[in-house]
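## Example record

The block below lists the input lines for one assembly entry, exactly as stored, with component labels intact.
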Amino acid sequence: MSRDIVQLLPEHVANQIAAGEVVQRPASVVKELLENAIDAAATHITLAIKDAGKTLIQVSDNGVGMSPADALLSFERHATSKINTAADLFHLTTKGFRGEALASIAAISHVSMKTCRMEDELGFEVDLKGGQIIRKEPGVVSKGTTVGVKNLFYNVPARRNFLKSDRIELRHIIDEFERVAVAHPQIGFAFYHNDDELFGLEPSNRRQRIVGVFGRKINEKLVPITEDTDIVRIEGFVGKPEFAKRTKGEQFFFVNNRYVKSGYLHHAIKGAYEGLLQEKQHPTYFLFLQLDPETIDINIHPTKTEIKFEDEHAIYTILKSAVKHSLGQFNIAPTLDFRHDSKLDTPYNYKDKAPRAPQIEVDRNFNPFSDNVVSPSTGGVKRMPQFKREEQSWESLYVGLSKEESEGFSKVQFESEVNTENLFYTEAEDRQHAGVFQLQRKYIVSSLKESMLIVHQHRAHYRILFEEFLKNITVERGITQQLLFPLILPLNPRELQMLKGVKEMLEQIGFQFASFDQEQVQISGIPSSIIDTQVNAILDRFLADFEQNVPKEELDTSQALARILARNASIKTGISLNTEEQLSIINRLFACKEPNLSPESKPVFIRLGTEDLDKRFK
Ligand code: ADP
Ligand code: MG
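Predicted structure tokens for the full assembly:
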């Protein structure tokens, strides 16, 4: 007997399948609920989550609310108040339109909704479990809507098991929250995680909102941009090149106030920064594009972050030239373009030091042929005759570093002052004396038994600090150097969260934190192998890198932390070292467990034996 085998999927199965598209992780739920609250014209929205959203995600708004019938209907698939006809799709000004978010979320969790319209006395409450209504009744509810989502993926164990650590899931949620908060500065937001307030954002303008979200220190980095053409209006901010990060930091495109990803437009921006950024540096931008909704298609991706433009090429060109123009203006007249109003926020001027540090990491204009002439201005000539330090303290390794930083701008003058003869004499004498010398401010050359030893200075120091930090975390606490005046490190909420997560390990390494508050930490003690003027720069870069490389397994965290901190704290190529420092590096390196390889598994030194040399002289 033959039988028709095509059948419609039962509603709850269809919803679960749809859920797979819409809800990848707790952050997806956060995004959908926040967007619904915005579409409901809320002026204040509170997000509260527990255990990175795995236990609870709750969004409360003071928006228009729903009637009991609408509240029930909102959980039906394809139930939306936002479009009626397919043509409506092209005039969208709301976030949602597919009408499947609530149905999908409800299918894979326990949802409770409380809602009340402005005009109603009594509100309405409804609870669902796996998409089935288990309770509904009128209730006294404050105006607006609260949706609580508990036990996400309780009936999809595969999904639940694939959730990452709380720290990673929280990071995704913060990402979503930031996008929504930055796009809607006129709306007030509060965000709680396990009763910690992560963000408290008052209604404000765009610049203030960006500062509220990313911390006060971003203010001075922003250059405003506006461009009005027939097809697109561009507003927002781009980051000054000098503050560019080595990690992909804040890069935001909003099209008609919706966060989108666009590799194509990103490329336009990178083009505008051409020649202004060093290799591996990334521009910061917050760009708001307004276009006629009929000229874009945001409906090509279920989670709605991809976009198609009708006039892609023109937008590319306009965007690139607008960014170029803003950057150019700022270069000519920096003081006209932005306000230094955050100057007074941080005592001791440490704030100013932090962002400058990346400039000295690698001396890209470094001319190998002038090395012998220039290098002593930062080290050799000035230091050598004066300091013959007895002890080989680790701080001494940083003398070059801090000097370079403070003298960065006066290099040119030093050049003319250098006494070349003296220099050669000093270095030569030094070589004889110690049997080590530095090559191109990159390698330390020495002899070892029958062979010649060439050590990569940065990788060597990286290895040394890595082992030291790792030992501090796992075996014995590092030595703390007390600071006379605590350092203030301004942080944004996301950095603060991250720092809290690794606070104990940093304390093991030797950091001491006097206080944590919403916007900054006070550092009262630092590891003895880091010098105080470098701390803010090192921690700043550490947090940026750590965020990009958050380890997947908790076990890896101490390794990753030691590695990233060591990388940022180690001396770089381009720094000149005196004899003591060179010797010190070599000695400490060979006291390491694995001196051969850097923590990133690159060779740290090479040895040329006499046989190797003999071969070459054949
Ligand atoms: P969409 O947002 O695509 O319309 P959703 O499933 O997210 O689909 O929501 C379905 C409907 O429920 C919305 O169209 C809206 O009418 C209503 N709704 C959802 N959340 C809220 C809220 N916070 N306040 C008022 N109405 C809401
Ligand atoms: Mg929606």
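The chain has three domains: 11-201, 206-329, 453-605. DSSP finds 23 helices and 22 strands in the chain.
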